[in-house]
Amino acid sequence: MSIEQADVVDAIGVDKETGGVVLTISDHLEWSNEHLLLLQEKINLYIGFVEAGDLVAVYPDAKGRQVSINVVFKYPPDVRGKSFLDRVGPIVEQAGIRFSFQISKMN
User: Fold this and answer.
1) pLDDT in tens, 3-31
2) What's the domain count of the chain?
3) Rounded Cα–Cα distance for residues 73 and 12 (Å)
4) Which SS3 state, helix, strand or coil, does residue 95 take?
5) Does residue 3 sit in helix, strand or coil?
6) Does 31 map to a domain?
7) Which tens digit of pLDDT belongs to each residue from 61-81?
8) Within a domain: residue 66?
9) How far, in Å, are 10, 12, 64, 94, 105 from residue 42 at the CA level?
10) pTM of the entire structure?
11) What DSSP state is assigned to residue 74?
């Protein structure tokens, strides 16, 4: 799965430390305007997936757990990417979903 598949959740797992459910976005793209739009679409898909109850429907163990979205980037965000991530984090968290990102160590 990847960021280019806007209608698919890339990965669902449980954080062993917190017990929360983590939805992962796998992002292998270099930074561009199109990239930002794809990332926004994918994040919106994940929020909708949680809010519609689809997460609990496909992963019943998610019920009652904190949900997080974690984006794993192949490439570090450029200036526009950093600005986008600074803005999107609080918006995602308003939906009751934690938001984080990291750069893959497998470059």
Assistant:
1) 777 788 999 999 999 999 999 999 999 99
2) 1
3) 17
4) coil
5) coil
6) yes
7) 999 999 999 999 999 999 999
8) yes
9) 10, 14, 23, 17, 22
10) 0.91
11) S
